[in-house]
Design brief:
mainly alpha; disordered C terminus; 67% helix; 464 residues; disordered N terminus; two-stranded antiparallel ribbon
Length: 464
């Protein structure tokens, strides 16, 4: 590993790895310079002349001490000012102030923190113009910027380009690329990269394995995710909380509630502390596995695990109860949220509406829709869809049609299930003319499947 020093070797410049393996450039603790404070006050994208006005005298000092520029650029990175960092590099070059690899890497890091992948690529490609050769840290920061910008193809291209430029990828480079594959649902490529690390005599760490397990989760490959987790002790890498959470989440996506429960229960034996993510994912796994009693048991047991109950956990439990028609329990959980100092959100209410629908409790569902407005929650397409279906069950055609028209006015395209529920409500009330009007309304939406559905309803209700 190269020595992390600028031209003034007496003052080191260090790097740290964050949870996803990306680079954070840092320097000895010190207060913000006046130049940094003034640059930050200029906003996100100031004119070049204003930046030059701030740095005019500082550029002279940087010629003798380039480390001062690194400190300022690191401050811009920390405060997510990628455009300003790029401007500083250009002004340094224009004033014939030395630009080195640490300056460029700090500027690219600013792009990474702001998900500005295009600017990161531009800065990386501009480095030869500054007579600066990119190193593994420059590439890693750029790969991470692409990862945050959901550009997995470009991230992999950069990784493969490194050896061609005689820059050897390190663990951070691979970790960022694996994370990019995870976000792009490319689980097979993520596993290939993990194997490449071993083949190139790099040592995958917990961050590497966590990213690979997460990639398996997004690709609905829970089996591979668990295999990776079980392999870690063999290669002398201890799984951390992030790895276990990723494995539980992988199981959750496929409703593997037994495995999720087992992983959660095994965390203390690994000397790992479960957290909100661990418990919420396990509860959600129980929901998908139709295990509402187990979901409630886990929710109630969270304080014993020294985990504070969070809204995401309660929402998963409400969904678990609702999916199994346990509307009383779902509504009880919803009503108890304020006692736990939690404020219901649209997810909470949608889950409760679903419970009312499955329990044929249309009166309670209508009350809940009314309560949402009192809580200053905007009923979204999921809320209104559930409301329409419940109104259809109860024959409340006026409310069903009203909710349906709200969806249309807000630009949503209701699906066949929603329209069928509204039409069913009208049919039960003998509103044949209204059914025809609904047909004409959906003619204007140009949704073929809905027009076909409406024609079928009109045909059934037309006089013979």
């Amino acid at each position: 590993m190269p020595a992390l020093f600028g031209n003034d070797a007496r003052t080191p410049c260090t790097t740290r790895r964050s949870g996803n393996g990306t680079i954070t450039w840092s320097s000895p603790l010190q207060p913000k310079s006046q130049e940094l404070q003034r640059l930050l006050s200029l906003g996100l994208d100031p004119p070049d002349d204003e930046v030059f006005g701030v740095l005019g005298s500082a550029l002279l000092h940087w010629r003798n001490n380039p480390k001062l520029a690194t400190i300022l650029l690191s401050g811009l990175a920390k405060n997510r000012r990628p455009s300003v960092a790029g401007q500083v590099l250009r002004l340094m070059a224009a004033s014939r102030t030395e630009v080195n690899v640490f300056h460029c890497s700090s500027a690219i890091s600013a792009c990474e923190k702001s998900s500005e992948w295009q600017l990161a690529l531009h800065l990386l490609s501009a480095m030869p113009g500054y007579s600066v050769k990119p190193n593994e840290f420059s590439y890693s920061a750029c790969i991470s910027a692409c990862e945050k910008g959901d550009q997995w193809q470009i991230a992999l291209t950069l990784l493969s380009d490194m050896p061609l430029k005689r820059v050897m990828p390190n663990e951070v480079s691979y970790n960022a690329a694996i994370s990019a594959c995870e976000k792009g649902c490319q689980w097979e490529r993520a596993l290939d990269l993990l194997n490449q690390m071993v083949a190139t005599e790099l040592s995958p760490d917990a961050i590497s394995y966590n990213a690979a397990i997460s990639a398996c989760g997004t690709g609905y490959q829970w089996w591979y995710g668990l295999s990776i987790l079980s392999t870690m002790p063999i290669v002398r890498v201890n799984p951390d909380e992030f790895c276990c959470n990723a494995a539980i989440s992988a199981c959750e996506k496929e409703g593997q509630w037994r495995l999720a429960w087992r992983l959660l229960g095994g965390m203390p034996a690994r000397r790992l502390q479960p957290d909100v993510i661990s418990c919420s994912a396990a509860i959600s796994a129980c929901e998908k596995g139709c295990q509402w009693q187990l979901a409630l048991s886990l929710l109630r047991g969270m304080p014993e695990l020294r985990v504070t109950i969070a809204l995401i956990s309660c929402n998963a439990a409400i969904s678990a109860c609702g999916n199994e028609g346990q509307w009383q329990m779902a509504l009880s959980l919803l009503q108890n949220l304020p006692a736990m100092k939690l404020t219901p959100d649209d997810i909470s209410c949608n889950a409760a509406l679903n419970a009312c629908e499955k329990g044929f409790q249309w009166n309670l569902a209508i009350e809940l829709l009314s309560d949402m407005s009192k809580l200053q929650l905007t009923a979204n397409i999921l809320s209104r869809t559930a409301g329409i279906r419940v109104c259809g069950q109860g024959g409340r055609w006026q409310l069903a049609v009203g909710l349906l028209m709200q969806l249309l006015e807000e630009g949503f395209s209701p699906d066949d299930v929603v329209c069928s529920a509204a039409i069913s409500a009208c049919q039960k009330a003998g509103q044949v003319q209204l059914t025809e009007r609904l047909f004409n309304t959906f003619e204007a939406t140009a949704i073929d499947s809905l027009r076909f559905l409406m024609r079928g309803v009109v045909a059934r209700d037309s006089p013979k």
